[in-house]
Amino acid sequence: MAIITLTTDLGSKDFYQAALKGSILxxxxxxxxxxxxxxxPSFNISHAAFVLKNVYxxxxxxxxxxxxxxxxxxxxxxxIALKYKDHFFVGADNGIFSLLFDEKPEEIVELNIMQDLxxxxxxxxxxxxxxxxxxxxGAKLQDIGVxxxxxxxxxxxxxxIERDIIxxxxxxxxxxxxxxxxxxxxLFTKIQQNRDFTLYFRKNETINQxxxxxxxxxxxxxxCLFGISNHLEIAINKGKASGLLGLHLNDIxxxxxxx
Length: 259
Description:
Radius of gyration: 21 Å
Structural class: alpha+beta
């Protein structure tokens, strides 16, 4: 079964998303197309990387993930396809892959598929679709590109550790207005060492207990937990934490550990 996922910033009100899907089905009518999201903020590769990083492991091996973020033609950006943990990814080499993976991909090729000048401004429906459908049909990476070792590097802002303190920041706000930070469960556990903690954010807002699920506190009460992404989240049971607590992207949060 040929599965192709789509992660783009095309939105839903224009014809671009439908044109992309039509292009795929014109080449591979039997493809199963899965929308990861088309609501990535325009050109926001860190947002797209966070979403796809938390999605692709749930798909069968061999799935092709087409990424349409900041993919318009540029003489300085190459288009690549790669294999990582038996999944295939196609997209622009604009730094997104360095944010998406924790290890070096198994194989990388720079696409050498001929560009149709008719779609020069919209390579998603041309080069990207041709690459994704060929991979979905069983082609090898070397059939669609030339082997390369390098991908564009982009750095995320990492938490800062100061003895018994982790200083982190907000990196994602989901549809429910849950606030997700860049503090991972692994880092939190490593520094905590079974000690009590206090999470500080905004002015005088604090939380000093981890929850296992969102309904563990009364409705309207704030909580923190490690959600499906394994990142520390700040939420409100049945409420919109981002708006009610005044938390936004890049805001600073601080965790202090104490005996």
